[in-house]
Structures are given as structure tokens and as C-alpha cells.
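Consortium newsletter contribution from the modelling node. Members have asked for a concrete example of what our holo predictions look like. Here is one, prepared for the calcium ion complex that several groups have been discussing at recent meetings.
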Amino acid sequence: MTRLIIDTDPGVDDAFAIALAAREPGIDLLAVTTVAGNIGLDLTTRNALGVLALCDRPDVPVAAGAHRPFSRPVRGDTAHGVDGLGGAAAVLPEPSAQPDPRGAVQLMVDVLTASDEPVTIVAIGPLTNVALLLAAYPSVRQKIERLVIMGGGIAGGNITTAAEFNIWVDPEAARRVLVEEDVPTTLVPLDVTMRCSVGDDWLNRLARSGPVGSALAAITPHYRAWYAEFFGRDDFVMHDALAVAEVIQPGLLRTTPLRLEVDCSDGPSSGATLADRRGGVHQDPGRLVDVALDADPDTIRSFILERLT
Ligand code: BDR
Ligand code: CA
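And here is the predicted structure:
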């Protein structure tokens, strides 16, 4: 059984990721914490509660965290529509649970401290909450089995030419977590997620599978249209669900240990994730992150679909 905390900014693909974890028998979902990212904090928190209600998991505590990045303005992502769920948040049931009053960082601390086994944290939004946790409570690092982070793009970005959205929103937090900390970390960047896109057949099978699948399918049209408009693609990408899939089955994504840097400047590559792939004598000493650069796309698509249906 993998004990798990999800830190998230739902977000269409975040909703899929939460549902994947909430319905997985091998996952003990201990908490969901929210952060401003795809949309503002009030909506990411409400959406997380709604997805858990859809999955009949009102028992999972949800707590709101940072309402803005460390030192940058709030910048959302139009891919996820006006409510963060493609304008279709109303398809989710009204949540019966309220946000946990402790807030995201305190809830993570309490869950980690109380656990007698190490806990995995999957972070699928900007890294503000995770950086705050590690900075303010360094002793909890020993309770973290692994961070699995969806973010970055070694070969290029999505929100800008150079930067991936989650890192671009709060590069200072990302640098703290990916460069300055030493908790074992797997990074799931665009390099692998963009290869594992899904399309009509996948979506139709999901929609026909029952109430959870049909509600998840109902939040995708705006997101899908955005992929067509911005990338000229007929398919779309469930970035965050890949990070949870890797938690469910460690090793599903093929990783390479790399030293990373995050561009915290305000220049054209602000928020870029840089990987040192020179090898040999050029390698600076420092922390290695397992970067998922490869996976079998058909295996990933089936893995996610089978578990959601
Ligand atoms: C990441 O940014 C958000 O738009 C998605 O939810 C995902 O976490 C992809 O770049
Ligand atoms: Ca996200």
C-alpha cells in the first residue's frame, strides 16, 4: 500500500489524476492539498472537493495552501477554462465536506508526522506548497519516501517556448524543491507526457464506462479545443495522471538521473528547467533527480483508462 498526499491545482488533468489515486486499491490517499495555479485557490480547492465527492471519497481531507507564488503574480492557464474544469465544474456533485481549517502545509506536516510509514507526495501544480513545507519543516523530509512532480520540459516548454506551466508559475519554489533539496524525487516533464496523448477512442471508452468516467469526459471539451487552437493537435494530454500512474506502479515511466537547474530570471527563458546531460568531467557535483524522459505511450494510455473505468 502506497501512502500518498496529492498537492494539486485542479485543473482538468489534475481531476483525472485525483480520480486515479482516489479509486486505486493500492493507494492510501491521506490528503489532498491545493495551490493556486491553473485557476485561483478558491476554485482549485472547490474542484478538488468536487472530484473526491464524484469518487465517493469525502473522507479524504482537503486543505487550501498558497494563494499566490513566492514572489510573482498569480498567472493562470486558459487551457482549463473559467472554473478550472473547462466551464463544466457543475457536472461534479456538490461536495459535502469543507476544506480542512489547518491549511495545506500544516495538514501535510500532521499527516507526515502521524504516519509510521514513509509517505509519497505527488505534486501536480506549482511547487509553492511543497517548497514551503520543506523550508519550514525540514524534519519531515525523513518521512517523505519520494516526491513525484509533474513539471518542466527538458526539450522545451508549453506555456512559453522554454518553460512548462507548473515551473513557470513559481520558479523560485521549483528551484528550491528540484535543485536545493535532497528528498528522492522523480520529475515527470513534458518530454514524456506529450508523447502519451489521448484522443477520441480513449475518451469515448471513458465516457461510456459509468458515472465517474462520464463526468470526467464531460470536463474535457474546452481543454481539448485549447490543444487544437494552441498546438494544432487533435489529441490532448493528461500530464498529471502520468505522475499518479508512476506512483501506482513505480518504474512505469523510464527515468534518467540528471542534475537540474531552474531559470529564475525574468528573461525569455524564465521558468525553464535545464538538465545537465554533458556527463563526464563537466558534471557539477550536486543533487540528482530521476527525470522521466521515456515511456511506452500505449501502455500508459491503457493503464490510466483501465483504472478509471
Ligand atoms: C501542467 O500545467 C497544468 O496546465 C496542468 O494541470 C499540468 O499540471 C502541464 O504543463
Ligand atoms: Ca496541474
